[in-house]
Amino acid sequence: MTLTLALDAMGGDAGPEMVVKGADLALRQAKGLPLCYLFFGDNLAIETELKKYPDLQKISNIIHSETIITNQTKPAIALRSGRKSNMGMAIDAVAKGQANAVISAGNTGAYMALSKILLKTIEGIDRPAIPAILPTLKGKTVVLDLGANIDCTSENLVQFALMGEAFARQLLDIERPSVGLLNIGSEELKGNAIVQAAAQLLKEFPDLNFQGFVEGDDITSGKTDVVVTDGFSGNIALKSIEGAAKLVGHLLKESLGGSLRGKLGYIIAKPAFKQLQTKSDPRLYNGAVFLGLKGIAVKSHGGTDFVGFANAIGVAISMIQHNFIKDIEERLSILISRDKQPVSTLTVEV
Amino acid sequence: MTLTLALDAMGGDAGPEMVVKGADLALRQAKGLPLCYLFFGDNLAIETELKKYPDLQKISNIIHSETIITNQTKPAIALRSGRKSNMGMAIDAVAKGQANAVISAGNTGAYMALSKILLKTIEGIDRPAIPAILPTLKGKTVVLDLGANIDCTSENLVQFALMGEAFARQLLDIERPSVGLLNIGSEELKGNAIVQAAAQLLKEFPDLNFQGFVEGDDITSGKTDVVVTDGFSGNIALKSIEGAAKLVGHLLKESLGGSLRGKLGYIIAKPAFKQLQTKSDPRLYNGAVFLGLKGIAVKSHGGTDFVGFANAIGVAISMIQHNFIKDIEERLSILISRDKQPVSTLTVEV
């Protein structure tokens, strides 16, 4: 089966040049997997770039859009242009079944809102969430939501837990992922009412490997396979982790640079340091999925280069290959059937 | 002037043995500063320990308490015992002016609640907050609140900002500390209503070096001298940073251990690695102040050893030496006088 990918060619700070070059790299990284690209945006601008990559050109189609939105376009205007813009048309291609996934490095707010309107959420999901896969002491952990939903109800958190579970099952290949709910530590002050209510709902959820509350340091310790939180705390946790990693690197450099032995040791061990640096290259973690939609939409960082964009395309391919949406639909059917059950059958048990 | 310190001898997982040993170390670290210790708790248990340190014994008094609360006592019971327990009596010594500060490694919830009742909050402050001083790329940053207040109003956040500002001015010796409000990144979704309202209030606050919103990674980048947030996000950010530092250390070890060159480089640069490890010893960061009270109360981590407890005593000494409470009272008088102003003078301006 050929995988068809809809690319918003005008999104991202660097526009078509970066998107087309990234698509070319992703094609080579896909190693023979049959791909087809649909580039949405300005015909001329895309064609100019495509000409540079003959192999890429063969498997690509350009779909011209009269309305062009870039990362400089105000989100409100981007939204109003709906399915007529490069971004909207790319999303709509997935909604219409013409493409298997859409990838854009455009404005997050507009992209999320348009995706929600055009692709619709899976039944049982109120809002899409953005997960991240983070390295831990034990392996990898899925954290969500990372900023799509600032104010969350306990029901939202339960939905995130189910989406995170399905994501970990499919993408981390864990049969029965353990799930933790992010909270603060002290025994007697276990978070706010929303977190407490969510914990209760998760505890009662059938066949869920819920491990209760986890704390900020448990994200990177890998205590659970999935960490669930609202978008405000999740975004702050993720960025705090990024910042801390930078700080430790800086302090290490300072410490090593402060003595002759340190400098010498660094030179000798340089390949090991380089290896660590390569492994933690943020471009390799680029590509955030909007979880909970009926189609696959991947958001690339707006400021990324072609390497990062190619990685975002890779995430989309991986999402298509795993039967993620079906998995989550099945999981959610429990929630839905429970909600639809008349109250009487719950209370008149004999 | 002799500094009198009230110590809860029964708090902490290791009890009097750890507290007394820590007090001895702090005495030696104070290098001739005239200190006097008041130990609150079980007479016999404290005396047994004190006998081991003749120099310490000379400057120490034991105040026996009939009601003993330890870290195994339930917080509710600890609270009910009020000022009759070792913890309550130690706090009360500060309230009555018999001691300059109280230090306890006891239960956080009970200690915070009793301190609030016995010491009272500074006029204009609704709730005490717990700050931390974190290392950054540029130096040090004050972050608050770290878990004392889960649900905060925008007014609470403004009070935290003023307390943090005074704390940074006095303890980091910065004349006009810059203040940032923790939020999530995306331009179009700038946090919830509480954070937005707080930002507005801070922007309008006279003579405050408010720099607007900062993100999770700005905590360790040192973008501002003070980072203000509610206790839920603050606790998660702090613990996420701790966890990330551990993870980077682990990945580095793995990377260095994976090759001969890595191992060799590590051995040669070992003093530099050790230096970094020593600098980041969590015991050296032990001692959290309850900011916003009319007296100085320092919370030591319950699981710390004597080195950590000595550091918590050091924090208390440093708080006494800086005129912290007076500084914050002056700063808050602006808030109070503004609140007390009759509305008419604000509206009938001609």
Q: For the report, how would you describe the main beta sheet of chain A?
A: 6 strands, mixed
Whole-number count of domains of chain A: 2
Low-confidence parts of chain A lasting 5 or more residues at pLDDT below 50? 342-350
Number of helices of chain A: 15
Task: Describe the protein's architecture and organization.
- The structure is a homodimer of 350-residue chains.
- In chain A, the strands form 2 sheets. Chain A has a 6-stranded mixed β-sheet with strand order 3-2-1-4-11-10, with helices on both faces. In chain A, strands 5-6-9-7-8 form a 5-stranded mixed β-sheet.
- In chain A, strand 5 (131-135) and strand 6 form a beta hairpin.
- The first copy, chain A, is built from 15 helices and 11 strands.
- The radius of gyration of chain A is 22 Å and the shape is globular.
- In chain A, helix 1 crosses helix 13.
- With 350 residues, chain A is α/β, with parallel strands linked by helices.
- Chain A has 2 domains: 1-126 and 285-350, Rossmann fold; 129-257, Isopropylmalate Dehydrogenase (3-Layer(aba) Sandwich), CATH 3.40.718.10.
- Helices cover 50% and strands 14% of the residues of chain A.
- Chain A starts with a strand and ends with a helix.
- Residues 342-350 of chain A have low confidence and may be disordered.
- At the A-B interface, helix 9, helix 10, helix 11 and helix 12 of A face helix 9, helix 10, helix 11 and helix 12 of B.
